[in-house]
Amino acid sequence: MTDKQKNLIVRSITGTLFVAIMVCGFLNPSAMILLFAIITALSLWEYTGLVNDHCEDVQVNRFISTVAGVYLFVAVAAWRTGIVSNFAIMVPYVLTIVYLLICELYTGTKNAVNTWAYTMLGQMYVAMPLALVNILAFEMAHDGSGARYDMLLPLSVFIFLWTNDTGAYCTGSLFGKHKLFPRVSPAKSWEGSVGGGVLVLVVAAVIGYLANNGADAHTLNIYQWMGLGLTVCVFGTWGDLVESLFKRTLGIKDSGNILPGHGGMLDRFDSSLMAIPAAVVYLYTITMF
Questions:
Q1: What angle do CA 198, 201, 207 make, to 5 degrees?
Q2: Which residues cross the membrane (predicted)?
Q3: Are 14 and 145 found together in one domain?
C-alpha cells in the first residue's frame, strides 16, 4: 500500500468520525454546548500556539486567552438559553480582555502592539464566531417561558459547508481551469466554487422541503433555506481563504495535526468561522423585512 493510499484511508476514517461526532453533538442541547466549548478551547489553544511559535517578538497569553474564549462561549449560551437575562454575565469576560491589554505593561514583550493585535484577533476570529453558534441553536420564547432548541439550523450550516467542499472538490477536479484566488489558494477554481454552490442550493431546497412537511413547519421556508445555503457557501469559501492567508503569513502548511489527515482545528473549522456569523446576520436580516 502506497503512502497516498494510507493517507486516504486515514483521512476517510478521521472525516467519518468527525462528522459522526458533530451530528451526535447537535442531537442534544447540553451535548452541543459541551462540544463547542471544547472546540473553542482547542481552536484558541492551537491559534495562540501558532502565533507564539511563528511570529517574532509576540507572546500571547495562551492560557488566559483560551479561558476567555471559552467563557465567552459559555456566557452567550447561558444568556441564549435563558439561564441569565442581563449583561452581568459578560463582566468577567470584559475584565479578562482589559487584563490582557494591561498585562503587556509588565511582561516586557518586545512587540506589545503585535501581541495585543494577535490577542484580540484570536477573540474576534475564533471565539466570537463559535460563540454565535448559540444564536443559531437557541431561540428565546416571546412569552418568556424559556428557550427553544433548534438543532437543524446550526447543523445545516455544517451540512452546507461539507456539501460545498464536496461539490467544489468534485467539480473543480473535473472542470477546474480558472483559478479563484491563486495568491492565497492555488488549488481552488471558479468552476469548483460554482459547482459547490449549485449542490448546496439543491441540498438546501431538500432540507427546506423536509423541514416544512412535517407536523410542525420550520420558521424558514424553502427559499429562505436556499438563501441561507448560498450565504453559508459564499462566506464559507471566504473563511477558507482567510485561514489560508493566515497560514501563508505565518509560513506554515497546516494549523496542526490533531486531526490525522485533516490537519488542525483551524483547518477543520476555517469555513465555519466566517459562515456562522454570516448565517446569524442573514437570519436577523430576513426577519426585519
A1: 145
A2: 12-42, 62-80, 87-109, 115-137, 149-169, 189-210, 222-239, 269-287
A3: yes
Residues in the chain where the model's pLDDT stays below 70 = 1, 3-5, 141-146, 215, 288-289
Query: 3-state DSSP helix/strand/coil percent for the chain, to nearest 5?
Result: 75, 5, 20
Q: Which residues contact 250 (CB under 8 A, 6 or more apart)?
A: 50, 51, 54, 55
Q: For 208-262, where are the E strands, in sequence order?
A: none
pTM value is: 0.93
For the chain, the domain total comes to: 2
Q: Which residues contact 206 (CB under 8 A, 6 or more apart)?
A: none
What are 190-214's pLDDT values in tens digits?
A: 889 999 999 999 999 999 999 988 7
The angle subtended at Cα 194 by Cα 192 and Cα 199, nearest 5°, is: 95
**Domain boundary, last residue among 149, 173, 208:** 149
Same domain, 117 and 183: no
| Cβ atoms 189, 179 nearer than 8 A | yes
Q: Are residues 115 and 23 in the same domain?
A: yes
Domain that holds residue 156: 151-288
Q: Which residues contact 249 (CB under 8 A, 6 or more apart)?
A: none
Both 126 and 170 in one domain: the answer is: no
Q: Residue 140 pairs with which residues in a beta bridge?
A: 147
